[in-house]
Amino acid sequence: MPGPQQPLRLLFHTVRTLTEDSLHESYFGGKGPFAMTVGGMTIYVATSAEDIAATYRNNTTFSWDAMLDELLRYGAAVRQISLKDLCSEVLVDVTTRTLFGDGLVEVEANIVRYFLVFNNDAWMLVFHYPQKKGSKLMTARRRILDPFVNYLGGSDEIRMGRSWLFEKVTKRLESEGIKNEDIAALLLMVYCAANVNPYRLGFWMMAYILFNPALLETLRVETKCAVSDSIDADYLVNSCPHPEGFYLEVMRIVNGALSARKIVADTPMGNKILRKGNTVLIPFLQLHRDRNAFGPDRAAFERERFLLDKSLRNSASYRPFGGGVKYCQGRFLAKQEMLVFVALLINRFDFEIPPPCQRASPAISHSVSRNLTIPHQP
Fold this sequence. Notes:
Blueprint: H1 5-18, H2 21-28, E1 34-38, E2 41-45, H3 49-57, H4 64-73, E3 78-82, H5 83-100, H6 103-107, H7 111-120, H8 123-126, H9 136-152, H10 164-175, H11 180-195, H12 198-210, H13 213-223, H14 233-238, H15 241-254, E4 258-262, E5 267-269, E6 272-274, E7 279-283, H16 284-287, H17 291-294, H18 305-308, H19 331-348, E8 371-375
Helix pairs in contact: 5-12, 7-9, 9-11, 12-15, 12-19
C-alpha cells in the first residue's frame, strides 16, 4: 500500500538486516542504541540486553498501546481515498443497478465512469453550447448512449432485474415501433436526472460530518440501530430527526441548481413584464439565502436549523426539489437514499482527515481536499 506503510516495512527490513552480527559490528561497533530515518520516520534500535530490559521496564515514556495504534492505523485495513470518488462511484453505481439491474454494467463495465465524465459538461447541452463533432462532451455522450442501445437490444437475461418503471416504459415504446436508439436517448435523460445530484449531496454531507466530530457522534448514536444487522430505511426516514435536519440543511447550503420555464406569453412579475419567447430562471442557491426566512446567519451551516424551526422545510424560500406541477417526484426516494448512504458509512467505517487537509470546516467558496483515511472495521 502506498503511504506510511511502505516506509514502515522498509525500516523493519533494514533494521533486521543491519542488526545481523557482521553488519552490526562493522557499522555501529556492536554498541547501541542507534537511530535510523527512512521516509521521514525515525526509529531507535535497542540492541544490548541492558537497553532492551530498560525498554520493557519503562511503561511511562515507552508505550505499546501507542505502537499498536500506529500499526493498526497504517496496516492493511487502512486506505486513503478520495471522498469525491467514493461518493460518486458508490451512488451512481447503486442507481445504475437499481434502475437496470446488473445488465447495463455487464454491457459496459465503465458506464459509471463515462457518466461522471459526461455529467461534468452536461450543462452545455442545456444551454445549447456549440459542440464540434468529436468533442469531449459528445464523445462521453456516445460512450454512454451506445451501451444503452446494446442493453435494449440484448437478451431478456441481460435486462432481468430492471426496475418496474423502466420495464413498462421500454415495453410500451417498443410496442409503438420506436427504435432502440431513440428509446436509449430517452432512458439516458432519465438516468442523468436520477444521478445528477445524489453523489454531490453525498460528498457534502460526508464533508460536513468529517469536519464536525460532535455531529458525527450524534448521527452515529441515532442511526446505529437502523444499520446494525439489516437496513431499516423506514426507521432512518421517520425516527431520526438529527439526520433528517442535517440532510435538509446541507441541501439548503450546497444546492446550486436552477429551475427554468419558457415564457409562452407576456407575463407580469412584480412591476415588470416578462416577454414571450424568453426564459425565466429560478436560482435555488439565492433563494436559500433569503434573510427573511433563514435569518442573519443564512450563509452559515447550522446543523440544527431545521430542528429548531420545523416550519422552514415548508417555507416558500426552501425549494431544493423545485415546485409546481413539476415538483420532483423522486424527492422521497432521494431522502431515503442519502440517509441510508450516510448511516452505512458512518456506522461501518471510521473516518479521519489526513493532517494536511484539516481545517475548521468545509467551505463551498474555497478548495476543500476530498481525501480521507478509512480504517476498515472488522
